[in-house]
Amino acid sequence: MNLRHLEMRLERLEGFERPTARLEQYQTPASVAARLLHHAAMQGAIEGRRVCDLGCGTGILACGAALLGASAVTGIDVDAGAIEVARRNAEAFDLSIEFLVADIRSPDVDWAGLACDTVVMNPPFGAQKAHADRPFIDRALELAGEVYGIFNAGSTPFVAAYTEGQATIEEVIRCEFPMRRTFAHHRKDRVDITVEVIHLSRI
Predict the structure, then answer these.
(1) Residue among 171, 173, 167, 125 at smallest CA distance from 144
(2) Which residue of 36, 63, 121, 173 lies most exposed, with the fewest beta carbons within 10 A?
(3) H-only helix segments in 45-182
(4) What family does this belong to (predicted)?
């Protein structure tokens, strides 16, 4: 499946019904999700691989991974409402995806049983809570050897320092992230921000 075809399919998915600012529930744009997934697929990290989407929200990355031929896909999110939407999105495309309502910081989850080949994720940027992305990075590198994440522009030096001795940054792709009006404090219908898709390989 080429990049444009993947993006067009992902554009059909439902978004958040009641997004929560505290959880930074901005819908991942289809253009950004497709670019991350297509790039990972070109590097052999999706097709035939076990893929986990951490903080999956409404499941756009999880669904995209399944569309690209992942052998097994798991989506994990703390918000049960978002998981319900994600399940509907998977059903709409007749995709077999396991969704789990859980906090990625919880010690009560059998994380060893969720080990996979590749993690894809769009963690919180930390606008509401500083360092909100750190538990996602930690869990991602615990679960998988290859990690593809969406981070705010300028995050690469931090990610490199934070993961020193655990992982290496293989590649950084900058792209535009169209953020639509989602919460009451937003003043514009759309703001385009720059993000970095960072590919980490566990050492």
Answers:
(1) 167
(2) 173
(3) 60-67, 80-92, 134-143, 156-162
(4) Belongs to the methyltransferase superfamily. PrmA family.
